[in-house]
């Protein structure tokens, strides 16, 4: 479909380009996308099934991990199939409503993951500071309420974006240089003043992800303070190892996102396809690597994975 540029037309259909400038390499680029999606799908599904079917893994830490795995499944499923359709079948056409729906779920899930990581930092602190009262403080009822609160926060902050986009007239090019719909990219395709959209986007970022990072940092200051008050060296090592997996996942989740944001803000000389590839790393890497990190570094989960995959085959 050719791009329309008549100012009196408000587009209702857009075309996602995939990786701009690398269209002839799409078939090769699709291979890591497919591999990461299959690993994310299998790894997170296995993780959820093991946690929900093993009574011994019904502790708060594993229930929060189950929430994280569910969010990873949603995040990767919202984006990767669409990207593969573009790479394989040149199926980049997407309606405005479908585009808004996609970005709504992408950002909701991203904010939910950030909230879950914050809760998991709080969980680490409780486990180290109050080990004997751990399960009595974090009851299943409280965990359920925390999960609902995380979801309500993400949906509540992203929901106004639907109306902020719906009010716009999309009379510029209907070509979107990306593999999925992004909020600001879509807003820039309009002919309206989008300052409200930009400021609300900043508000959402600061009030959710940035706030979560600050609170996670404070949580780990308290965790380290509690750890170094433990007299036994072995106990200190065990306490630090308890939160090791969580630290790896935090770096994996926020690291690429911060790097991508800085690159987009200051790297104006960088080719557009680099920006698109970096933004895709933020979505591809965490869902693929999170179950691997927790599976390898958490002995209880690793033992159950080995039992499920190998014991029954003997």
From TrEMBL:
Primary location group: membrane
SUPFAM superfamilies recorded: Family A G protein-coupled receptor-like
Molecular function terms, GO-annotated: G protein-coupled receptor activity; olfactory receptor activity
Cellular localization per UniProt: Membrane
Cellular compartments per GO CC: plasma membrane
Topology within the bilayer: Multi-pass membrane protein
Record field: transmembrane: 27-50, 62-91, 103-128, 140-165, 198-227, 239-258, 270-289
Residue ranges of domain G-protein coupled receptors family 1 profile in the record: 43-294
Keyword list, A-Z: G-protein coupled receptor, Membrane, Olfaction, Receptor, Sensory transduction, Transducer, Transmembrane, Transmembrane helix
Pfam families on file: 7tm_4 (PF13853)
Highest taxon above the source species: Eukaryota
PROSITE patterns linked: G_PROTEIN_RECEP_F1_2
Function: Putative odorant or sperm cell receptor. Odorant receptor.
Protein name: Olfactory receptor 52B4-like
Organism of this sequence: Enhydra lutris kenyoni
Gene name of the encoded protein: LOC111159247
